[in-house]
Amino acid sequence: MSEGAAPAGRRRSDLPVRAASGVVMIIIAVAAIGYGSIAFTGLLSAAAVAIAVEWAGLMGAGRVATRLLVAATALPLILLILLGSDVPREAILAAAVAAALAVALLSRSVWNGAGVLYALLPILSLIYLRDQYDGITLTLWTLVIVWATDIGAYFAGRAIGGPKLAPRLSPNKTWAGLIGGMVAALVIGVALAFPFNISFRLAGTAALLAAAAQGGDLFESWLKRRAGVKDSGHLLPGHGGVMDRVDGVVPVAVIVAGLVMVGYP
Fold first, then answer.
1. What is the helix (H) or strand (E) element at residue 41, kind and residue range?
2. Phi and psi angles of residue 61, each rounded to the nearest 5 degrees, phi first
3. Calpha distance 260→237 (Å, rounded)
4. Quick check: 41 and 84 in contact, CB under 8 A?
5. Quick one: DSSP state of residue 171?
6. Coil vs helix vs strand at 172
7. What is the pLDDT of residues 60-118, one digit of tens each?
8. Which residues pair with 240 in a beta bridge?
9. Residue 89 needs a FRET pair 20 to 30 A away by CA distance; which of 83, 100, 164, 195 works?
10. Residue 195, pLDDT above cutoff 60
């Protein structure tokens, strides 16, 4: 999410559409998390496939390479849906890595292979978090950190302005926005620690997670600039593509899942 003034060409009339679709997306995500693993896995699987398609577009992949990338992204998720908790998560992760290597070799493009991991790793991470004890609140906390980062960065960037963070990649991002996002994430992350049953050790990483979210945003901005496009896609009204909405979630979900795996919390 960009902070500061709206980009040139974006009309104020777009804001109600962006706000409404953003609220709808949050409601759908929260409902899927609360309803159960089947709905959540299904929703995330659809998102992963959409990300794979958008990544292929940003890479300028041909029809065959795009289909290969999408199929490689879908296969580990199909395996997970069919076998559920009976399949070890390590096996799913190994399948994801194998799929990425296969795509890279068959399409002769490391970037195409990287797209499989970009689409799958955050999705598998969120599914892993949802499957934990207190997984509902842990997954919600992870997403709330990203949302708090976006909101804090947006308002701090508008109110303070100042030096640009990475003008060549995202001209609206400022250092003030980065700091505002980190502060907002830390405050919200710690405030929700007790009601969400999140350890204060994990909550204390919220500011660093916010920095990672901003890094994910900048990386996706670099990909779009490299491809010469404004949005990763046009699936979401007023929001561009799926990648445009989950760029901050990608690194944060992977990092939180990694911390949980090693027993950090």
1. helix 37-59
2. -70, 145
3. 34
4. no
5. E
6. strand
7. 999 999 999 999 999 999 888 887 767 788 888 899 999 999 999 999 999 999 999 99
8. 236
9. 195
10. yes
First to last CA, the chain: 28
Burial bucket for residue 50 (CB in 10 Å: 0-12, 13-18, 19+):
buried
Joined together, the tokens standing for residue 257 give: 């899942």
Model pLDDT, residue 8: 43
Which tokens in the block code for residue 90?
């390590």
Residue in the block written with tokens 């620690």: 193
Q: What is the pTM of this model?
A: 0.90
Single-letter residue type at 208:
L
For the record, the structure tokens of 249 come out as: 């979630």
- Mutual orientation of helices 63-83 and 37-59 as an angle, nearest 10°? 170
* Tokens found for residue 17: 């559409």
pLDDT at 5: 42
CA distance 231 to 58: 10
Evaluated on CA atoms 239, 242, 243, 247, the torsion sign reads positive
> What is the pLDDT, as a whole number, of residue 10?
44
- How far are the Cα atoms of 84, 145, 208, 217 from residue 251, in angstroms, in the given order? 24, 12, 11, 10
